[in-house]
Structures are given as structure tokens and as C-alpha cells.
What we know:
The structure is a single chain. The protein folds into three domains: 158 residues, GAF domain (Beta-Lactamase, 2-Layer Sandwich); 124 residues, no CATH class; 100 residues, Elongation Factor Tu (Ef-tu), domain 3 (Beta Barrel). A six-stranded antiparallel barrel has the order 6-15-19-17-16-20. Strands 2-1-5-4-3 form a five-stranded antiparallel sheet. The relative contact order is 0.10. Helix 1 runs parallel beside helix 5. 37% of the residues lie in helices and 27% in strands. The protein is of the alpha+beta class. The protein contains ten helices and 20 strands.
Amino acid sequence: MEPQPSVNLDAQRQLQLLAGLIQLEKEAREAESEANLAYLAVNDSRRLVPYRQAALWRYAPAGARVIALSGVTAPDPQAPLARWLAAVASVLAGTAGAALCTIALDELPVELRLEVPEWAPNGLLWAPFAGRDGKVEGGLIFLRPEPWRESELALLERLTGAYGHAWRALAPRRAPLRFNFGRREAIAAGVVFLALLFPVRESALAPAEVVAQDPLVVAAPSEGVIASVEVEPNQQVERGQLLFRLEDTDHRNRLAVALKTLEVSRAELLAAEQRSFSEPNSKGEVALLRARVEEREAEVRYLDELLKRIQVRAERPGVAVFTDRNQWLGRPVRTGERVMLLADPARSELQLWVPVADAIRLTPGSQVRLFLNTDPGHPRDAKLSHAAYEAEATPDGTLAFRARAAFEPGKGARLGLKGVGKIYGERAPLIYYLFRRPWAAVRQRLGW
Length: 448
């Protein structure tokens, strides 16, 4: 039997390529995800044409990004080859168009020519995917050292077209916005509009504490060290009861020295008066010594008064309000420094710190409701009596306006309790109540 002509071998090869093309198109259409399609495009395209490296890339305004490389499970975007391919795709997306073509090295920018792989001097094939609007959204780049033949380009053009179709089919679609504005929608919009105009009372939340109303400040009468505290925190005291005493050693020593100095001055005055009878010129010295004696006597009286004030007593009955007696023992104090308060438990009021960002118009007589931390289920009612115009630093370091409120009769609470106070202001539309803070933030951001 004679051998078959070579033309039959070429026909058989073409049939195999055609069958491979059909199979790849079928697998591309059946790809369940973009990752499956990417793996198929960069790895299984070798069934039709040989190549050294293939890359699938996606276009973005910030630059192209390689999402798949042949022979690599998860490409590293910072790898040299991936970075070079992304840079090439970013350049060619704006210059090479949306048709399959080969790219010569001379067509690349100088900085990209220097990084061309040594094994791909002539084999860069550009195979983009065009979107529905005709713009390049991604594509494939094939690299190999040999030039591309026309038959291979024809096969790859058909195959990349199938890849591009599958790419667009797997891409998430944005549902078009449709407005069916009928009678029901118009009625609903009108109801919402009217609801936004409904007047509601403005309100603001503020940290609150129950404090004494008009308390008596008990301060240190002079500089010294607190020797003892005779009462306990929150203890009921009577008028004249000893509260605390200062260390008196220094004052007693100063008084003893002043008394001795007074004795010496009086002796000097007596001697000068006796000399003045025989020495008329010494009468001027008598007047000077008498003034010095008067000065010493005033100093003794002052020190004696200070010694009497070492013991601090209550000027009126009340509850001693301070933190801890041990905290004050041995502590140096200055003249006028507050040590404790004397408060009447029956006369309490509410102190609030309204944050600057939440401040509303605060007018005397506004309703205030206190929710205690210890009993939030039973709020206490009060009326706003005072609101500061100037913000000040709170104990936690934030800026806030200090406000005070008087409890309703029989609605008071124990001194020192804390909670959250809700201050009610004037009425305003619901839309203003909801968007007041966002609108203020936008104006602060934009400066108008």
C-alpha cells in the first residue's frame, strides 16, 4: 500500500485544531466562575498554540492588574514579571486598540523595553477583551520566543473572542434603576413629606449628677498639714461640731518665739523709760521701742488667733461631703483650699454637662428628665434653672456647657448619684431633628 499524501496529514491536523477550538469554546461557555475561566484561558490554550507564558489582566482607572498567570496558582502582584505585564497592559490598553495583534518591542516605552524577558524577544501577542461599549476591559497577553504565524493568529482571534464573551457573561451586571412612580408611590411620598414636617421636641442627652444646692464650702483656714479628720464621709454633723484640725506644732513654736520676743521688747522699753529720766536725749528711743512692743503684741494676737483656728468646726448643720478621710490625713493644704462641703440632704439639684456638639437652645424652665444609673426604670423630673453661655472642660476632658436643674417637689435623689439627663427644648420639624447634626458636620467640613 502506498503512503498517504502530506495533504491528508495537514487536513487531519486542521481537524484536530478545529476540534480543540470547539472544545475550548465549550469549556469557556461552561465556566462557572471568573477564576475557572481565567485558569482555562492562561493554561489550556496551549492545546491550540504553543507559548511560553500567558497572563490574564483586568483594566482599572488606577492601572491594569494581572489576575492569572500560566503555571502559577495565585500570582503575586509585586513579582517582577507580573508588574511588567501589568505595566505593558496599562500602556497598550490606550494605544493598541481592541483588536488582536502582535506588538514589536519598538512600540513599547523605553522603560518597558529594558525589562522584556530574554526568552520573548519577538513573541508578544496582544489579545484584549472589549466590553459592550467597545472599550477594553481586560484581556490576554501571550509571550514566546518564536514569531507568531498567521494560522495561529486566526485561531487565537476566534478563541479570545469566545473568552471575551464568557468574561462579559460572568461579570456582575448592575440592574438598571427603574422608577415606577404611580399613584400609590405619590401618596406614600406625600405621607413621608408630611411626616418630616411634623413638629417634635428637640432633646439632648447629657451626663448628670445629683449635687447639693447652695452647699457651705469648708476650707483650710491657713497653710499647714491636716493632722486629723474627725468625721466620716456623708456623716450628719451639728453646728459647732469639730470637722478636722491642722498640725499645730509650727504655730505653737511661732507663738512661743513671738511671746519671748515680746518680753524682750517690753524689757527694752522699760529700761529706756527709766533712762529717759536721767538722759533726756533717750526719749526718742522710747517712742521707737514702744512701737516695736505694739508690733510684737499684734503678732502674738495674730498667732494666737491662728492657733485657735487650727480646729475647724461646722458653721451650720448638714452632711459632710468629701471623698475619703485617709486621703486627707497628712496632706499639706493652702489657705482657702476646699477640704469638704456641708450640704443639706433635703436641698439637692441636678448638675448636667451638655456636650458642645449636642447643645440645643437651653432656656430656664425647660423640662429635664433624669435616668439614674442605679434605677433607670424610674426617671426623675426636674426643671432647668441655669445654663452657662461659655463651654468649659469637663472632668473627662471634653468641652461642654454646665447646666443646673431643680427637682420637682418630692422627686429629689441622694447626693452623689449619677446618670443621664434628657433636656427637652423647643419644637422643630422632624426633618430638622433628624438631620441637624449631619447638616452641621457637612457645613463645618465644606466651610459654608
